[in-house]
Structure formats: C-alpha cells, structure tokens
Design a protein that fits this description.
CATH architecture of the largest domain: 2-Layer Sandwich
Strand order of the largest sheet: 11-7-6-8-9-10-1-16
Number of helices: 19
Structural class: alpha+beta
Helix content: 40-55%
Largest sheet: 8 strands, mixed
CATH class of the largest domain: Alpha Beta
Number of strands: 18
Strand content: 5-15%
C-alpha cells in the first residue's frame, strides 16, 4: 500500500527565470520547539539521493517510448547524447546537484515547493488544492450540523495533542521509517498571496502558538478560542455552545463574501491582497484567519440532486463550493486545512497543497472520523460558563475591493461551470481480486486506467501517479509513469481477437509487474522526473541557458499529463478529488477498499475531447474485463 497522494502541478512547464533563491518557502519544523524524539527520528533518515545521470537518461528514453513518435524519440536520443558528453553541460549540472545534495537536508524539497506550488499562478481552487469527500453523516438540520462540527473540532484538537506531544506513531513503508515532518506543517499554517510568488507561513513554530480556529458561516468569519485558560481544549459541549452563538449572530446573508478573493488567479489575488490589508481592520482580520489552527466552514444550502449523485455534488462542495451563489465565498482557500460541513450531512475537507501531501491529511481525517463516532458522553447539567463570545472578524469594503470581489465571483462561476467531477463507487470488487491473483492492487488499477484511456482514444498518454519520497528526510513526491512499453503492449492486445487469452494474461502480468517495479524505483529515489527537474533548476541556479533537452517536444509531451492520478488509501470510506492538470486531461483519484473502490474523476467541460462520465464508464468496464480475463484463464501461472 503506497499511502500517497499528490496533486501533480504542471512542474515541467515552469520557467525559472534568473537565479533561484530559497526564499518564501515552507521551512521544516524549527528545532527550537522540537524535542529529541522528533529530531533523533528525522536525523536517522537518509538524504534523498541524486540518481546517476546516465541511468536517468536511459530511463527517460524508455518512458518516452509509448507516448512519442519514432522521429521525436530519435531526435531526443541525439539531444541526450550531446547532453551527456564527457565534460559537457549534463555532467556539470549533475556535479552541481550532487554538491547541493551534500550541503542541504534535501536537495529537492525547497525547489519542489517553489516550482510546483508557490510559483504556480493558476487558482489553487480546482487546479492545485484537493478536496476530500467523507461518507454522508446522519444529520439533516442546523442543530445536527453544529453538533457534528463540535465533535469534529474536538477530534482535530485530540489529534493536535499528539502532534504537539510528538506521540504520533512513526509510519513505515516496506519496513523503513518515513519522514514525519509534514504532520508538523498542516496546522496553524497558511498560504500568503504574492504578485509573482506566494509564501507559506507556519504559526505553530512561533513563540505564541495560536489558540483559536476560524469558523465561517454565511460568508462571515469568526475567531473561536478552542482552549480554556488552563490550556485544556474545549469539550464538544462547549464547542457546540460557541458554534451555536456564531450561527445565531450571523443569520444575515447579505455580507460581502471576502473569502471568494482566495479563489482568484494568484497574481490577481496578490494585487487585491495588497489593497485588502492596507486597512488596519482588514489586516487584523486576515491575520487572525492566517494564524488560526484550521478553518471550519459551516455551509448553507446546496443544489438539490438525486441521491445517487450526492457524493459527486459533495465533491463539488469540497473542491470549490459550487460557485458564488452557493458556498465558494464561505471559504478561505489559502488556509492549509479547511473542514466543510453542510446542513444535510455533507462533510469533508479541502487542503492547500504546498505544506504537505495527502497521508498526514488522511491520517488526521481517519482519526477525526473515528473520534466523532465515539458514543456521546452523558451531557453535563451545565456547560462551564462564562466563555467569551466568539469574535466576529470585520472587513471594510472599499469600492475597489467590491470590484475585486465581483471579479472573483465571475471567475469562480466560470471555473465551477467548467469543472465536471464525478464520484463513482465501483462495487464489483476491491483489493481482494488483484490480491487473489498475486497482483498489486494499485498496479492493477493503474493498468485498468491505461486500458480505459486506450479504448477511448486509441493511443497511450503521459500518465502521472504520485509516489511518496518520505523514506528520505523532508521527502515529498516523485512521479510513477504508469504508461510503459509493457502497459502499451497489453492495452493494444486486449481487444485483439487474434490474441489468445493466455497471451493477454501474460501481457497483463508484465504490465502490472512493470508498474510495481517503477513504483519501487520511485519511492527509493531512483525515478526520473524530479532528477530532470533538478538538473533544469540547477541550470537556472548557475545562470546557464536551459539545455536543449528541456526545450524538446518530447519533454513537453512527457509533462503533458492527460491522466493525473493518485491512490489515496484510507481507513475511512472516503475519496479525495482534484481537477485535471492540463486543459485536455483528467484527474483520477481512488481509494481501494477491500471489496469496492471509490473513484473521483474530473475533466473540463470546455474541452470537447474529454468526458468524465465516459472515462468513468470505461474504467469500470476495464476493471471488469480484466477480472473476467483472469477468471477465464485459470491455468495462467500468476
């Protein structure tokens, strides 16, 4: 089980200009507040290696074979031969990377956060921040919404205690301990917009750690202190009282939805942000949001849909809120972690991706869901009072800010209209079937995705799957390239009537094994994509003109991920969702349970070549057909 999640942003398309400076980046947890337990664990982890140059170049050619034309591949081979010449630019950049690796905790992590997230200028909504859809909860009114929110907050604070005390169990992959740094990045942190580059701040590292969360209701923001004067967290009963107070004092819905500004293109939001915080009241309100431990969004009504479409509508709410007429303004999308709770039992989260990948988010969610399912304690006769009234945050809206808000509404509505996202529960089988045939469930699903795509388009495409690099100190992700020569051979043979079933099964086995082998390379720091990115960034660092291999059409094709995918396993029966990373692509996230698989599939309506429902249907058929092939070929030695 990979236990991974990453939103692949268009990293290869990024154009670093000038010298790359390690500023405005997420920093690892400061040692000043960490104890020996955390530090000794982290110091015991290996550093991320720099793969050999020749190895990466050879594997790059292999990865290109199923997705580029023969003449393009020939040209790329010539460029790579020149790039690798003894004493040439490739060797120089490789030496620079190796030197960087010797002098930093992780040669990649700061560059990765910068290029993948902070320099990326499209809105974080849909394009970068994932949503997470929980099973529908058993409440359907305002009181139920508040009661559940109170328990959820108590559950998050319970998890935060483990973070603060450094008692979160160390995670392992293949018997090797994983870096736990990301757990210390998700709470009390926030993205800060800039005109050309954003920043991330983490207030958990300050001398005065935040004691409050932000609650949003009817587009109005409130500061809710979640700790008593003695340092103990508020109980669910106390939180219920405070949340009820917030809802009672924010019944009107004619408030300007300042939060919708966070849905904008980052350069536009960066300029609006400067105007917003010129006013002292606004600056204090924004600071309170940024410093808060996390945000809770108590949503208003949502569009009515048939019961079977509830999860898909919930995915829309988690990803972007449905547009300005609904709940898109009831958010602060720059906040690392937002929990979203509707009145009808719709629940989930949205998270800003720069500080962390999915595993710490999913671990936190699993803990919180388990916490909310605990039987209610016998309510005490009285909730200890007095508790201070939650503080409403005020904003002074100038005509210029009003104009910015209206522009953000229009842009958000266009994006909401464009994104088509479907959540599908594949009920026919889950991890159990591939496991019975001694196949990796993740590899089996990825090969099914290749088959589904090939059936729709009669070609293979560059496919991204995230691989965790957390075996290494401060590790983030690398790319598992799911489109391989082995998968291409399998998908081309599958519907060929001239091929025997035994041959098809043998090809399936090869494709699954090839995916598993590449996965193992990726998680051990030997994949190609981050190494190639590092060489490109090193060229910018040394003020060397970008090598031709990175201007090549093959490189552009390799990074144009029409399938951007991620496996996000969870104990909870949930599914993560995200948008496509290219205009003519798909986003596919899945949670394989033992006897079913939750899928979230997305594409853009404005692209006539893509269709979310068609791909979802093709994936379902591919999975069923692959199982049938295995069952009809019992003698195959798997």
């Amino acid at each position: 089980m990979l236990g991974i999640c990453s939103r692949m942003v268009k990293v290869g398309m990024a154009k670093p200009c000038g010298v790359v400076k390690p500023c405005y980046l997420v920093k690892p947890v400061s040692s000043s507040r960490m104890t020996g337990r955390y530090l000794s664990h982290q110091k015991g982890l290996p550093n991320l290696p720099v793969p050999p140059l020749q190895q990466t170049c050879e594997r790059y050619i292999t990865a290109l074979e199923p997705i580029v034309e023969v003449d393009e591949l020939t040209h790329t081979k010539e460029l790579l031969a020149d790039f690798q010449k003894p004493g040439g630019v490739g060797e120089r950049l490789q030496r620079g990377l190796e030197s960087r690796a010797c002098n930093t905790e992780n040669w990649l992590s700061e560059w990765w956060v910068q290029v993948a997230y902070l320099d990326y200028r499209l809105p974080v909504v849909v394009h970068s921040s994932p949503g997470l859809v929980l099973p529908r909860m058993e409440f359907s009114d305002k009181q139920g919404q508040i009661r559940f929110a109170a328990k959820l907050i108590a559950g998050v604070l319970d998890f935060k205690t483990m973070i603060d005390n450094e008692t979160i169990p160390v995670e392992y992959l293949g018997g090797k301990p994983l870096c736990m740094n990301q757990y210390y990045e998700v709470l009390s942190s926030c993205r800060i917009p800039g005109v050309k580059r954003d920043a991330v701040v983490n207030h958990a590292k300050s001398s005065r750690r935040p004691q409050h969360i932000t609650v949003v209701h009817n587009f109005q923001f409130f500061v809710l202190d979640v700790y008593n004067s003695d340092g103990t967290p508020l109980t669910a009963d106390q939180l219920f009282v405070q949340l009820d107070r917030i809802c009672s004092s924010s019944l009107q819905t004619n408030t300007e939805p300042v939060g919708i500004l966070t849905t904008q293109h980052r350069d536009i939001w960066g300029k609006a942000y400067i105007n917003l915080i010129k006013d002292r009241t606004n600056k204090e309100s924004v600071s309170a949001i940024q410093r808060s431990i996390f945000t809770v969004c108590l949503d208003g009504p949502m569009p009515q849909v048939p019961t079977n479409a509830h999860r898909s509508r919930a995915a829309v709410q988690m990803l972007h809120g449905g547009g300005s007429p609904w709940n898109s303004g009831n958010r602060w999308f720059d906040k690392t972690l937002q929990f979203i709770i509707g009145e009808d039992g719709t629940c989930g989260a949205n998270y800003e991706h720069a500080p962390a990948e999915g595993p710490p988010i999913v671990a936190l969610i699993d803990h919180v869901v388990e916490y909310t399912r605990k039987p209610e304690m016998v309510p005490s006769a009285k909730v200890p009072l007095p508790m201070p009234m939650p503080k409403k945050l005020h904003f002074n809206i100038t005509p210029e800010l009003k104009k910015d808000i209206e522009e953000a509404k229009r842009s958000m509505n266009v994006l909401a209209e464009d994104l088509d996202v479907r959540v599908i529960v594949f009920n026919h089988f889950g991890k159990n079937v591939p496991k019975a045939h001694k196949m990796s469930p993740d590899a089996f699903i990825q090969v099914a995705l290749q088959l589904a795509y090939y059936r729709m388009y009669q070609q293979c495409c560059a496919t991204y799957e995230s691989a965790s690099l957390r075996m290494f100190r401060l590790g983030r992700t690398d790319t598992i390239r799911s489109a391989s020569s082995a998968s291409a051979a399998f998908v081309k043979a599958f519907d060929d009537p001239n091929k025997q079933n035994t041959e098809k099964v043998a090809l399936m086995e090869k494709a699954v094994k090839a995916h598993k082998a590449y996965t193992n390379l990726a998680i051990s720091g030997q994949a190609i994509d981050r190494h190639l990115l590092g060489l490109k960034m090193q060229a910018a660092e040394e003020r060397i003109s970008t090598p031709k291999v990175f201007k090549d059409t093959s490189y552009a094709k390799a990074l144009h991920y029409r399938l951007s995918t991620s496996q996000v396993p969870s104990k909870t029966d949930c599914v993560m969702c995200f948008g496509p990373v290219v205009p003519d692509g798909y986003g596919v996230c899945y949670n394989p349970m033992n006897e079913h698989i939750n899928f979230a599939v997305s594409s853009f309506n404005t692209c006539k070549e893509t269709n979310t429902a068609d791909l979802a249907h093709a994936v379902e058929n591919a999975l069923l057909d692959m199982r049938m092939l295995l069952e009809q070929t019992p003698r195959a030695k798997l």
